[in-house]
Amino acid sequence: MSIRQRTIDAIEHRATDSVPYHIRFTKGAREKMARLYGNPNFEASLGNCLSVYRARRLAEVRPNVWRDEFGVEWDRSVDADIGVAVNTLVTPETLSGFQFPDPDDPAIYTDFEASANEFGDTLAVAKLSYNLFERAWSLAGMENLLTAMIADPAFVHELLDRIAEYNLAVIDNVCKWNIDAILFGDDWGHQGGLLMGPHLWREFIKPRIARLYQGAGASGKYVFLHCCGRVQELFDDLIECGLDVFNPFQPEVMDVFDMKRQFGDRLTFYGGISTQKTLPFGAVSDVRDEVRHLLDEVGASGGYIAAPAHAIPPDAKPENIAAMIEVLQNQ
Predict the structure, then answer these.
(1) Model pTM score
(2) CATH classification of the domain holding 319
(3) Which residues pair with 272 in a beta bridge?
(4) How many domains does the chain have?
Protein backbone atom coordinates (compact mmCIF):
# COMPACT_ATOMS: atom_id res chain seq x y z
CA MET A 1 0.00 0.00 0.00
CA SER A 2 1.35 3.45 -0.90
CA ILE A 3 1.81 6.06 1.83
CA ARG A 4 -0.75 8.32 0.17
CA GLN A 5 -3.37 5.58 -0.13
CA ARG A 6 -2.74 4.48 3.45
CA THR A 7 -3.35 8.05 4.61
CA ILE A 8 -6.55 8.35 2.56
CA ASP A 9 -7.79 5.06 3.99
CA ALA A 10 -7.09 6.26 7.52
CA ILE A 11 -8.97 9.52 6.92
CA GLU A 12 -11.85 7.51 5.47
CA HIS A 13 -11.89 5.34 8.64
CA ARG A 14 -10.74 2.19 6.90
CA ALA A 15 -8.29 -0.25 8.47
CA THR A 16 -4.73 0.11 7.16
CA ASP A 17 -1.72 -2.23 7.05
CA SER A 18 0.08 0.25 9.33
CA VAL A 19 -0.78 3.63 10.83
CA PRO A 20 0.33 6.63 8.72
CA TYR A 21 2.46 9.14 10.58
CA HIS A 22 3.90 12.61 10.22
CA ILE A 23 6.71 14.16 12.28
CA ARG A 24 7.41 17.90 12.39
CA PHE A 25 10.31 19.64 14.13
CA THR A 26 11.06 23.07 15.50
CA LYS A 27 14.37 24.45 14.32
CA GLY A 28 16.07 23.54 17.59
CA ALA A 29 14.86 19.94 17.56
CA ARG A 30 15.76 19.53 13.89
CA GLU A 31 19.33 20.66 14.57
CA LYS A 32 19.68 18.17 17.42
CA MET A 33 18.47 15.27 15.28
CA ALA A 34 20.69 16.25 12.36
CA ARG A 35 23.66 16.03 14.73
CA LEU A 36 22.47 12.72 16.19
CA TYR A 37 22.03 11.12 12.78
CA GLY A 38 25.00 12.89 11.20
CA ASN A 39 22.71 13.87 8.34
CA PRO A 40 21.18 17.33 7.81
CA ASN A 41 18.69 15.78 5.36
CA PHE A 42 17.44 13.06 7.69
CA GLU A 43 13.80 14.16 7.29
CA ALA A 44 13.74 12.96 3.69
CA SER A 45 13.87 9.34 4.87
CA LEU A 46 11.41 9.54 7.76
CA GLY A 47 8.45 8.17 5.80
CA ASN A 48 6.14 11.11 6.56
CA CYS A 49 2.68 10.82 5.05
CA LEU A 50 2.04 14.51 4.31
CA SER A 51 3.63 17.10 2.04
CA VAL A 52 2.64 20.50 3.39
CA TYR A 53 2.77 23.69 1.30
CA ARG A 54 2.06 27.13 2.72
CA ALA A 55 -0.08 29.78 1.09
CA ARG A 56 1.81 32.69 2.58
CA ARG A 57 4.31 35.45 1.82
CA LEU A 58 6.93 36.16 4.46
CA ALA A 59 10.10 38.25 4.32
CA GLU A 60 12.72 39.32 6.86
CA VAL A 61 12.57 43.11 7.08
CA ARG A 62 14.93 43.61 10.03
CA PRO A 63 17.17 41.22 11.92
CA ASN A 64 14.86 38.54 13.41
CA VAL A 65 11.71 40.42 12.35
CA TRP A 66 9.57 38.96 9.55
CA ARG A 67 6.65 40.63 7.78
CA ASP A 68 3.77 38.62 6.33
CA GLU A 69 1.49 39.45 3.41
CA PHE A 70 -0.87 41.45 5.66
CA GLY A 71 1.94 43.63 7.01
CA VAL A 72 2.03 41.97 10.43
CA GLU A 73 5.57 41.85 11.80
CA TRP A 74 6.74 38.82 13.79
CA ASP A 75 9.73 39.09 16.13
CA ARG A 76 11.56 35.75 16.05
CA SER A 77 14.42 36.68 18.35
CA VAL A 78 13.06 34.31 21.03
CA ASP A 79 10.71 31.98 19.16
CA ALA A 80 12.60 31.20 15.97
CA ASP A 81 9.73 29.27 14.39
CA ILE A 82 6.70 31.57 14.71
CA GLY A 83 7.60 34.71 16.59
CA VAL A 84 5.55 37.35 18.40
CA ALA A 85 3.37 39.89 16.58
CA VAL A 86 4.78 43.34 17.37
CA ASN A 87 2.59 45.78 15.47
CA THR A 88 -1.14 46.60 15.47
CA LEU A 89 -2.58 47.43 12.06
CA VAL A 90 -6.35 47.52 12.50
CA THR A 91 -8.70 49.38 14.87
CA PRO A 92 -12.43 50.05 14.60
CA GLU A 93 -11.55 53.45 13.16
CA THR A 94 -9.13 52.17 10.51
CA LEU A 95 -10.71 48.89 9.42
CA SER A 96 -12.71 50.32 6.52
CA GLY A 97 -9.55 51.80 4.98
CA PHE A 98 -7.24 48.88 5.68
CA GLN A 99 -5.94 47.33 2.46
CA PHE A 100 -6.09 43.55 2.49
CA PRO A 101 -3.48 41.69 0.43
CA ASP A 102 -4.34 40.55 -3.06
CA PRO A 103 -5.35 36.86 -2.85
CA ASP A 104 -4.19 36.47 -6.47
CA ASP A 105 -0.64 37.63 -5.68
CA PRO A 106 1.64 34.89 -7.09
CA ALA A 107 4.11 35.44 -4.24
CA ILE A 108 1.62 33.83 -1.85
CA TYR A 109 1.80 30.56 -3.81
CA THR A 110 5.55 30.17 -4.33
CA ASP A 111 5.52 26.89 -2.36
CA PHE A 112 3.06 25.45 -4.87
CA GLU A 113 4.90 26.81 -7.90
CA ALA A 114 8.16 25.26 -6.71
CA SER A 115 6.54 21.85 -6.24
CA ALA A 116 5.27 21.82 -9.85
CA ASN A 117 2.50 19.45 -8.79
CA GLU A 118 5.00 16.71 -7.98
CA PHE A 119 4.12 15.70 -4.44
CA GLY A 120 5.41 12.12 -4.58
CA ASP A 121 3.85 9.31 -2.57
CA THR A 122 2.30 11.54 0.07
CA LEU A 123 -0.94 13.38 0.75
CA ALA A 124 -0.51 16.91 -0.61
CA VAL A 125 -1.74 19.52 1.87
CA ALA A 126 -2.14 23.29 1.46
CA LYS A 127 -1.63 25.07 4.77
CA LEU A 128 -3.57 28.26 5.51
CA SER A 129 -2.16 29.66 8.74
CA TYR A 130 -3.85 32.42 10.76
CA ASN A 131 -6.97 31.83 8.75
CA LEU A 132 -9.59 33.55 10.93
CA PHE A 133 -9.33 34.25 14.67
CA GLU A 134 -5.53 34.25 14.64
CA ARG A 135 -5.46 36.60 11.67
CA ALA A 136 -7.93 38.90 13.42
CA TRP A 137 -5.89 39.17 16.62
CA SER A 138 -2.62 39.48 14.71
CA LEU A 139 -4.11 42.55 13.00
CA ALA A 140 -5.98 44.09 15.92
CA GLY A 141 -4.22 42.72 19.02
CA MET A 142 -5.40 39.79 21.14
CA GLU A 143 -6.70 41.83 24.09
CA ASN A 144 -8.36 44.35 21.77
CA LEU A 145 -10.14 41.64 19.80
CA LEU A 146 -11.41 39.70 22.81
CA THR A 147 -12.62 42.92 24.45
CA ALA A 148 -14.37 43.97 21.24
CA MET A 149 -16.33 40.71 21.14
CA ILE A 150 -18.28 42.19 24.06
CA ALA A 151 -17.83 45.96 23.65
CA ASP A 152 -17.88 46.32 19.85
CA PRO A 153 -19.22 43.15 18.19
CA ALA A 154 -19.97 44.95 14.91
CA PHE A 155 -16.24 45.63 14.47
CA VAL A 156 -15.39 41.97 15.08
CA HIS A 157 -18.06 40.74 12.67
CA GLU A 158 -16.83 43.08 9.94
CA LEU A 159 -13.18 42.15 10.48
CA LEU A 160 -13.89 38.40 10.46
CA ASP A 161 -16.09 38.71 7.37
CA ARG A 162 -13.30 40.43 5.45
CA ILE A 163 -10.77 37.81 6.56
CA ALA A 164 -13.15 35.02 5.55
CA GLU A 165 -13.71 36.55 2.11
CA TYR A 166 -9.97 36.81 1.59
CA ASN A 167 -9.45 33.18 2.57
CA LEU A 168 -12.28 31.95 0.36
CA ALA A 169 -10.40 33.47 -2.57
CA VAL A 170 -7.16 31.81 -1.41
CA ILE A 171 -8.99 28.48 -1.15
CA ASP A 172 -10.20 28.85 -4.74
CA ASN A 173 -6.61 29.47 -5.82
CA VAL A 174 -4.93 26.61 -3.95
CA CYS A 175 -7.62 24.20 -5.13
CA LYS A 176 -6.38 24.76 -8.69
CA TRP A 177 -3.24 22.88 -7.70
CA ASN A 178 -3.00 19.11 -7.43
CA ILE A 179 -3.62 18.97 -3.68
CA ASP A 180 -5.61 16.56 -1.55
CA ALA A 181 -6.39 18.63 1.53
CA ILE A 182 -6.37 22.07 3.13
CA LEU A 183 -4.97 22.49 6.63
CA PHE A 184 -6.52 25.43 8.45
CA GLY A 185 -4.58 26.84 11.40
CA ASP A 186 -6.53 28.71 14.07
CA ASP A 187 -5.85 28.35 17.81
CA TRP A 188 -8.94 29.01 19.95
CA GLY A 189 -7.91 27.35 23.18
CA HIS A 190 -5.56 27.27 26.12
CA GLN A 191 -4.81 24.36 28.44
CA GLY A 192 -8.02 24.96 30.40
CA GLY A 193 -10.58 25.72 27.70
CA LEU A 194 -11.69 28.16 25.01
CA LEU A 195 -10.20 31.65 24.98
CA MET A 196 -13.55 33.26 24.21
CA GLY A 197 -15.89 30.58 25.57
CA PRO A 198 -18.32 28.48 23.52
CA HIS A 199 -21.06 31.12 23.20
CA LEU A 200 -18.82 33.73 21.58
CA TRP A 201 -17.06 31.06 19.49
CA ARG A 202 -20.41 30.02 18.04
CA GLU A 203 -21.37 33.65 17.38
CA PHE A 204 -18.14 34.83 15.77
CA ILE A 205 -16.12 31.85 14.60
CA LYS A 206 -18.43 29.00 13.67
CA PRO A 207 -20.37 30.66 10.82
CA ARG A 208 -17.15 31.71 9.07
CA ILE A 209 -15.28 28.43 9.42
CA ALA A 210 -18.35 26.64 8.10
CA ARG A 211 -18.01 28.70 4.90
CA LEU A 212 -14.27 28.03 4.68
CA TYR A 213 -14.53 24.30 5.31
CA GLN A 214 -17.43 23.94 2.91
CA GLY A 215 -15.45 25.86 0.29
CA ALA A 216 -12.65 23.33 0.57
CA GLY A 217 -15.01 20.36 0.73
CA ALA A 218 -16.91 21.52 -2.35
CA SER A 219 -13.67 21.17 -4.30
CA GLY A 220 -13.22 17.61 -3.08
CA LYS A 221 -10.46 18.43 -0.59
CA TYR A 222 -10.13 16.96 2.89
CA VAL A 223 -10.40 19.55 5.66
CA PHE A 224 -7.72 19.51 8.36
CA LEU A 225 -7.65 21.81 11.40
CA HIS A 226 -4.75 22.62 13.70
CA CYS A 227 -6.22 24.13 16.86
CA CYS A 228 -4.34 24.06 20.15
CA GLY A 229 -5.87 23.77 23.58
CA ARG A 230 -8.76 22.16 25.38
CA VAL A 231 -11.36 22.56 22.62
CA GLN A 232 -13.01 19.13 22.52
CA GLU A 233 -16.38 20.63 23.48
CA LEU A 234 -16.45 21.92 19.88
CA PHE A 235 -15.97 18.56 18.14
CA ASP A 236 -19.64 18.14 17.29
CA ASP A 237 -19.73 21.69 15.90
CA LEU A 238 -16.58 21.11 13.87
CA ILE A 239 -17.90 17.89 12.39
CA GLU A 240 -21.09 19.75 11.47
CA CYS A 241 -18.98 22.42 9.73
CA GLY A 242 -17.26 19.78 7.60
CA LEU A 243 -14.03 18.98 9.44
CA ASP A 244 -12.34 15.69 8.52
CA VAL A 245 -9.06 15.71 10.51
CA PHE A 246 -8.30 17.31 13.88
CA ASN A 247 -4.81 18.21 15.10
CA PRO A 248 -2.89 18.45 17.47
CA PHE A 249 -4.89 15.96 19.58
CA GLN A 250 -3.02 16.93 22.76
CA PRO A 251 -2.91 14.23 25.45
CA GLU A 252 -2.20 16.93 28.05
CA VAL A 253 -5.66 18.47 27.59
CA MET A 254 -7.86 15.58 26.48
CA ASP A 255 -8.16 11.83 26.99
CA VAL A 256 -7.12 10.79 23.49
CA PHE A 257 -8.48 7.26 23.88
CA ASP A 258 -11.88 8.52 25.02
CA MET A 259 -11.94 11.02 22.15
CA LYS A 260 -11.39 8.16 19.71
CA ARG A 261 -14.25 6.20 21.30
CA GLN A 262 -16.61 9.18 21.17
CA PHE A 263 -15.75 10.73 17.80
CA GLY A 264 -13.53 8.26 15.97
CA ASP A 265 -16.24 7.21 13.53
CA ARG A 266 -16.76 10.82 12.41
CA LEU A 267 -13.39 12.50 12.91
CA THR A 268 -9.82 11.49 12.15
CA PHE A 269 -7.26 12.47 14.76
CA TYR A 270 -3.73 13.60 13.91
CA GLY A 271 -1.20 13.93 16.74
CA GLY A 272 -1.45 12.40 20.19
CA ILE A 273 2.21 11.81 21.15
CA SER A 274 3.06 13.98 24.15
CA THR A 275 5.42 16.87 23.42
CA GLN A 276 4.98 18.44 26.86
CA LYS A 277 5.76 15.40 28.98
CA THR A 278 6.93 12.19 27.34
CA LEU A 279 9.30 13.41 24.64
CA PRO A 280 11.12 15.96 26.83
CA PHE A 281 10.94 14.23 30.22
CA GLY A 282 10.17 10.53 29.72
CA ALA A 283 12.52 7.60 29.38
CA VAL A 284 13.04 5.85 26.05
CA SER A 285 10.86 2.99 27.31
CA ASP A 286 8.07 5.47 28.13
CA VAL A 287 8.18 6.81 24.59
CA ARG A 288 8.03 3.36 23.03
CA ASP A 289 5.14 2.30 25.26
CA GLU A 290 3.14 5.47 24.57
CA VAL A 291 3.58 5.31 20.80
CA ARG A 292 2.72 1.61 20.63
CA HIS A 293 -0.39 2.14 22.76
CA LEU A 294 -1.58 4.93 20.47
CA LEU A 295 -0.95 2.86 17.34
CA ASP A 296 -2.79 -0.13 18.77
CA GLU A 297 -5.76 1.66 20.32
CA VAL A 298 -6.32 4.94 18.45
CA GLY A 299 -5.00 3.55 15.17
CA ALA A 300 -7.30 0.54 15.12
CA SER A 301 -9.78 0.62 12.21
CA GLY A 302 -8.33 3.82 10.76
CA GLY A 303 -9.16 7.36 11.81
CA TYR A 304 -5.65 8.19 13.02
CA ILE A 305 -2.47 9.84 11.75
CA ALA A 306 0.20 9.28 14.39
CA ALA A 307 2.32 12.31 15.21
CA PRO A 308 3.79 14.38 18.01
CA ALA A 309 1.06 16.70 19.24
CA HIS A 310 3.07 19.69 17.98
CA ALA A 311 6.24 20.31 16.06
CA ILE A 312 8.78 18.67 18.37
CA PRO A 313 10.14 21.31 20.78
CA PRO A 314 13.84 21.99 21.31
CA ASP A 315 13.80 20.50 24.82
CA ALA A 316 12.77 17.03 23.62
CA LYS A 317 15.50 14.44 24.22
CA PRO A 318 17.10 13.28 20.95
CA GLU A 319 17.12 9.67 22.14
CA ASN A 320 13.38 9.91 22.80
CA ILE A 321 12.71 11.34 19.37
CA ALA A 322 14.78 8.56 17.82
CA ALA A 323 12.82 5.93 19.78
CA MET A 324 9.51 7.39 18.55
CA ILE A 325 10.75 7.35 14.95
CA GLU A 326 11.92 3.76 15.32
CA VAL A 327 8.51 2.55 16.54
CA LEU A 328 6.64 4.44 13.82
CA GLN A 329 8.90 3.17 11.06
CA ASN A 330 8.85 -0.45 12.23
CA GLN A 331 5.14 -1.10 12.56
Answers:
(1) 0.96
(2) 3.20.20.210
(3) 307
(4) 1
